[in-house]
UniProtKB/TrEMBL annotation:
The name this protein goes by in its record: Glycosyltransferase
Superkingdom assignment: Bacteria
PANTHER family per UniProt: STEROL 3-BETA-GLUCOSYLTRANSFERASE, STEROL 3-BETA-GLUCOSYLTRANSFERASE UGT80A2
Keyword hit for DNA repair: no
Domain annotation Glycosyltransferase family 28 N-terminal: ranges: 3-61
Presence of keyword Transferase: yes
Length: 404
């Protein structure tokens, strides 16, 4: 079967689909991954065909305030909608649509008659179990959580509405309101595979049929991949260090964050690795090393703890490695994942990005590294995740739903 996966956003929004695509390819399918040009090497390294989507992922990740986030998200979606249909060719037999591309891809599936399945990294369907992942709020109670979830979907519809209207016109489809589209999804029990672990988010009992929580899709990395030699030397030179990184967040704030990180590490008497990321973290010293991108699966199990922005992928990778976290959520769904890690005991209470200081970071690091309960909870989560096979379950789901 010829499968097209579509995903857009930052690296953490794309990398999991390289693992899913590799599993589908190993099962005998012909797989292409459509995303933005910046991630073409990531896609091709996984042995997948690359298709370009017309959007700049930097627009989606810019800003930390809600108003700025909405503005930049709207600009990102406008770009994404222009030419989204061009990513699909006449041979495509199945569309797998991410959270960010489904609001457009569903209309492409409607126009072509090609079946589609959601492949989501976040739980976006309303539930009484928790509030919408993008609000960053604590539970409001079951009825209010569901109401807030429906409101969040309406806000998403508003963001996508102009791009959807233009795409439907281009595809020769009549106008359709978001409520009509969602109604069709719900009546048909449109299938969505959620690529996260039940160790962090058990499947809500009030979800409709067709919504599956399958476990994480881990990013592909070559079997022969190794850590850089200078990193290996640093790891061997002393006790397990702490990794500090903010992924695609905090661009332009590197000097301030690097200073906070180094002061916190030394105050907590810990060795540290700074991962440069979009912020450009950097520091030198016998007790600190700066690195670029390396596979989490190779590095994290050798650490004492990790300080991160609580993106879905990094949160899962830390728990998979069985190490505790200090979370510094910035925006979007990050406060949700930060609270989930804290709820299972594998992280301290989140330190919001705007309130981060060297003193707060040092205190949190001291707790998660030296109090055994955090590592024990992380190890329990790791054992749970080891029993899951997110990619394998999704391959089975695809084959069951399509007969392919």
């Amino acid at each position: 079967m010829r499968i097209l996966i579509t995903a857009a956003g930052s690296r953490g929004d794309i990398a999991p689909y390289t693992g899913l695509g590799s599993a589908l390819r190993a099962a005998g399918h012909d797989v292409a991954l459509a995303t933005t040009d910046a991630f073409a090497p990531l896609v091709r390294e996984a042995g997948l065909e690359f298709r370009a989507l017309p959007a700049d992922p930097r627009k989606r990740g810019a800003g930390t305030g809600q108003r700025e986030l909405m503005r930049t998200a709207a600009a990102f979606i406008t770009d994404l909608g222009q030419g989204f249909a061009d990513a699909m060719d006449d041979r495509t037999e199945l569309l797998l649509l991410s959270t960010s591309t489904a609001p457009l891809g569903l209309h492409l599936a409607e126009a072509t008659g090609i079946p589609s399945i959601g492949v989501y990294l976040q739980p976006t369907v309303p539930t009484g179990d928790f509030p919408p992942v993008v609000t960053g709020s604590r539970s409001l109670g079951r009825p209010a959580n569901r109401l807030a979830g429906r409101f969040a979907l309406r806000m998403t519809d508003r963001l996508y509405a102009p791009a959807v209207a233009r795409l439907r016109e281009r595809l020769g489809l009549p106008p359709a309101s978001p409520s009509e589209t969602r109604g069709r999804q719900e009546r048909s029990n449109w299938p969505i595979a959620h690529g996260f672990s039940t160790a962090l988010v058990p499947r809500p009992a009030d979800w409709r049929p067709g919504l599956h929580v399958v476990g994480n899709w881990w990013p592909h990395h070559p079997a022969a991949a190794r850590l850089p030699e200078d990193l290996e030397d640093f790891l061997r030179a002393g006790p397990p260090p702490v990794l500090i990184g903010f992924g695609s967040m905090a661009a332009g704030d590197g000097d301030r964050l690097s200073g906070i990180a180094v002061r916190a590490l030394r105050r907590a008497r810990l060795r540290g690795i700074l991962q440069s990321g979009s912020a450009g973290l950097a520091a030198d010293g016998d007790d600190v090393l700066t690195i670029g991108d390396v596979p989490h699966a190779l590095l994290l199990p050798r650490l004492a703890a990790v300080v991160h922005h609580a993106g879905a992928g990094t949160s899962a990778a830390a728990l998979r490695a069985g190490i505790p976290s200090v979370t510094v959520p910035v925006t979007a769904d990050q406060p949700f994942w930060a609270r989930r890690l804290a709820a299972v005991g594998a992280a301290d209470e989140p330190v919001p990005f705007r309130t981060l200081t060297a003193e707060r970071l040092a205190d949190a690091l001291g707790r998660v590294v030296r109090e055994p309960a955090y590592a024990e909870a992380a190890a329990k989560g790791a054992r749970h995740m080891a029993a899951e096979d997110g990619a394998g379950r999704t391959v089975e789901l695809v084959q069951r739903l399509t007969g392919g």
